[in-house]
Amino acid sequence: MKRLMYSGTGLLVLLLAFVAFNMASNVLLPGARLDLTEQKLFTISDGTREILSELDEPITLYFFFSDRASKDMVILRNYARRVEELLKEYERVADGKITLQIIDPQPFSEAEDRAAEFGLQAIPLPQSGEKLYFGLAGSNTLAEREVIPFFSLEQEGLLEYELSRLINSLAQEQKPQIGLISGLPMSGGMNPMTGQPSSPWVALEQIRQMFSIQNLEHDIDQVPDDVEVLLLVHPKALTETALNAVDQFVLRGGRLLAFIDPLAESDQSQEAMIDVMADGKSSDLAPLLKNWGVEFNPEQVVLDARLGMSVGRGQGQLPARHIGWLEVEPEQLDRDDTVTAPLNLITVATAGALTHAEGAQTRFTPLMSSTANSALVPSSRFTGMEDPEVLLDGFEADEQIYHFAARIQGPATSAYPEGLEGIEQGVQTADNINVMIVADTDMLTDRMWVQVQDFFGQRVPQPWADNGGFLINALDNLSGSEALISVRSRGNFSRPFTVVEGLQRAAERRYRASEQRLQRQLAETEQQLVQLQQGQDPAQMLEMTAEQEQAIQRFLDEKLQIRKQLRDVRFQLNADIERLGTWLKIINIALVPALLTLGILIWWLVGRIRRRSV
Fold it and tell me: Which pairs from 122-127 meet CB under 8 Å and 24+ separation?
């Protein structure tokens, strides 16, 4: 038998058995897979199972995919197969509450007309002249519809979330009501800086997919009764009447999510344009925060040398470290709160600090914090700042940890116990309020977390940070629906290069002093050279003395030498990273195959020795 195993006939038998096993598994176990990814991205999450198990009414899903038109598109067909398998798994887990129809919309067919009726995006194929459909439509018993116009490959990481969101929207009798008061141009409009129209923020578009939004005025005297969650974004223009309305809403049991800011860089209002100082771009909820046991200084910004982002400085220049724009990592997020626990990266820009007031009765739970390598600086330091690395000059950490976001719960009293003139006195106390405060508004802007691409007229967002996830998770949590939180947070395929980032920060600290010294020497040398040349009459340039010629040549040589040293210093910034990359290439290209080959040889040698001993 052993001889047969090692003979040509034995190898052929093994090959045929392998092929037969694969064919049988494809027929008998079409959806079986082994998910080895860290976040189990290819396994239906508990949140999705909860949504499917709570379906009360049947839902019909129509999966449109142009099978014939995509016959030569291997990558797209593989993705389509994954979508189809996942939808079949949804149908199986829903236990009869979901009906799946798979449709290939042929040209000029009723199926193509139906796809167009649902609003699916058709992509023209130049070579064949056909149209490619690859989208999903769903409907419920009330004839309500939800659509994914096209499954973009760039959003594969959010596939399960998009499917679960669609089903959850169809399962809800009505979307939760969100009251929005915003002092920032979240809805788009005309950009006063460029004079060009701007699109709505992706964060707002995502809210609209899952919630019903009521836009409220800055001078409201009462929050509408049907509003479940009140969302404030940069509420610097709230009148005292509106502040009282917010206070009463919270005391009556309403949930509040507020984004305030010591320096809202995206504030392009007339007031901010006239007041060039940072104060014109700050927002606060001062009378309310005090009664909720929260302290916030609207004139101070948190710097963190550990979390500073790397930002571009223009063509031909090395990136700069901006310690006022921060990348908040999992270690700085509350891992016990459902809003932040699943998130991996949140970015903030010129954020403020929230602290729990001494003696406050409320519970203050930090959700997002800095490291101990941080400090507070006046927001005015950012006025007219051109190079963000000037923030590193003289920076000294105060070893304090500052909180960018917090959940406030517990007993509270009214900030207006006497009421306001013309307004009836309202609720004075509450046993438990539910408020979330974030000391940054710029984190909601597209540039801080998402890249938007135009895909045949459709805006396709590609998140690179979890800012949008934080916003949706917070609204889900406050509105009482948390099933989607665990699903959304699984869709992140990217992993930060923590070792590389650490090497880069260490190199910057090591060589920054040398670079600054050389830059100063270069500036002084160029200034001396200009002064020497300016002191010489152009008509007498050919009559310079030997000493003058030597001085000019010396300055030119010194300038070239300093520039060479500066290039060497900048080269050393990335030397450690390049060395790490070289070692990784050696390990992947040479070491791993060598170890595998050695293992096979040892296995073959051991087997041969055993056969001889027999």
Answer: 123/150, 123/456, 124/456, 125/69
pLDDT digit string (tens) for 258-304? 999 999 999 876 555 555 454 579 999 999 999 999 999 999 999 99
CA distance 600 to 115: 54
Shortest CA distance to 398 belongs to which of 303, 483, 493?
A: 303
Contact 311, 320 (CB under 8 A): yes
Any bridge partners for residue 434, and if so which? 255, 409
Which residues, at least 6 apart from 251, have a Cβ–Cβ distance to it below 8 Å? 412, 414, 426, 427, 428, 429, 430, 433
Render 546-582 in DSSP notation, one character per residue.
HHHHHHHHHHHHHHHHHHHHHHHHHHHHTHHHHHHHH
The contacts of residue 30 (CB under 8 Å, 6+ apart) are 85
Distance between CA 591 and CA 586 in Å, rounded?
A: 6
Residues 457 and 596 in one domain: no
- Tell me, what amino acid is at 429? T
Burial of 507 (0-12, 13-18, 19+ CB in 10 A): middle
18, 178, 261, 478 from 434: Cα distances, Å? 59, 15, 20, 8
Q: How many domains does the chain have?
A: 5
| Cα–Cα distance for residue pair 68/72, rounded to 1 Å | 9
Helix (H, G, I), strand (E, B) or coil at 590: helix
Please, which pLDDT band fits residue 493 given cuts at 50, 70 and 90?
very low
Q: Tell me how far CA of residue 191 lies from CA of 186, 275, 445, in angstroms.
A: 11, 18, 14
Domain for residue 139, yes or no? yes
- Across 149-191, where does the E strand assignment appear? 177-182, 189-190
β-strands 212-215, 131-139: how paired? unpaired
pLDDT in the model for residue 68? 87
Question: How many other CB atoms are found less than 10 A from the CB of residue 401?
Answer: 15
Considering the domain architecture, whether residues 414 and 531 belong to the same structural domain is answered as no
494, pLDDT greater than 50 = no
For the cut 50, the answer to whether the pLDDT of residue 487 exceeds it is: yes
Q: Which domain covers residue 523, as residue numbers?
A: 502-536+546-573
- Looking at residue 335, its amino acid is R
